[in-house]
Write a structure and sequence with these properties.
single chain; Heat Shock Protein 90; seven-stranded mixed beta sheet; three-stranded antiparallel beta sheet; 24% helix; 28% strand
């Protein structure tokens, strides 16, 4: 994934590790015996994996999943929010993948937060708090693909947190996930196909926020390359991909104060020519 805060991580054995260490009253003991942990998970009902094949009647409908974690220690707090929509729950392999990622991130972020607490001066505040958030959303749900975006936010001390976006496309036929940019022959090929339209649209947005022409010596005046962006593929017809969104996180196309930049483009023949042959039949020109 390009220009994202956290790539998809390797799987852990169990998606239930977040709740396994809880005591009956919802409190868990940390390494110093003083940590207070709260975990709340709304479990997904995944029809194809939870239904009893011998029982009559339809399988339960898939539902959205959301996990909320809060742990307090030595005057500091770690919080985490992780969620995905019902469309993910309807695909057991994808739900397991994201559940494994959630557990992996929770374990790593919490361990780093505890180390940060140990190294934090007694009179400091910002280095005692840490947070992570990830919300998956549906961009397009096609017969053969589920295209997702993820809003990712973090706070690891300091004046402000960071945020960005990830792309994931689940190939229902192959049962595998790829980054949006990996549907194309290369970032350079996609860049050549959209450069003129993308850079013009981006400059218009930057001018709208800055109110001035872009000076040539400004480091935020350049047009980002495709490997700096999150590439989301969408659909207006529910059958094929016919539009793309190019997302530039803060500091990619402008300062942090300007925020992120999103540019939506219709897919044309030049973009289709940049698509890998294996995926080309699933793209169409938007008229």
């Amino acid at each position: 994934m390009r220009r994202i805060l956290f790539p998809l991580l390797a799987a852990l054995p169990s998606a239930m590790m977040l709740t396994a260490c809880q005591q009956p009253d919802g409190q868990a003991t940390g390494k110093d015996g003083a940590a207070e942990t709260s975990v709340q998970t709304t479990a997904s009902a995944i029809a194809s994996s939870s239904a009893d094949p011998d029982s009559p009647g339809p399988a339960p409908a898939a539902t959205a999943s959301a996990t909320s974690i809060s742990e307090k220690l030595q005057g500091g707090e770690f919080t985490m929010e992780y969620s995905w929509p019902a469309a993910v729950s309807a695909i057991p392999a994808l739900a397991r993948r994201l559940g494994d990622e959630r557990d992996r991130i929770a374990a790593e972020e919490k361990a780093e937060w505890r180390d940060m607490i140990d190294d934090c001066p007694k009179d400091a505040v910002s280095c005692r708090n840490r947070s992570f958030g990830k919300e998956w959303k549906v961009v397009a749900n096609l017969p053969s693909y589920l295209s997702l975006s993820a809003d990712v936010s973090t706070y690891r001390g300091g004046a402000h947190g960071d945020y960005g976006m990830e792309s994931l496309v689940w190939d229902k036929r192959r049962g595998e996930a790829v980054d949006g940019i990996d549907l194309f022959r290369s970032p350079e090929a996609l860049g050549e196909a959209v450069a003129a339209r993308y850079c013009k649209a981006l400059d218009q947005k930057r001018f709208g926020r800055r109110g001035i022409e872009l000076p040539s010596d400004d480091p935020f005046s350049d047009c980002p390359t495709m490997d700096e962006l999150a590439v989301l593929v969408g659909s207006s017809n529910g059958k094929t991909f016919d539009r793309i969104t190019l997302y530039a996180a803060p500091y990619v196309a402008g300062s942090y104060a300007e925020g992120a930049y999103e540019v939506d483009l219709d897919i044309d023949r030049a973009v289709i020519a940049a698509v890998k042959p294996a995926y080309r039949r699933d793209f169409s020109v938007r008229h």
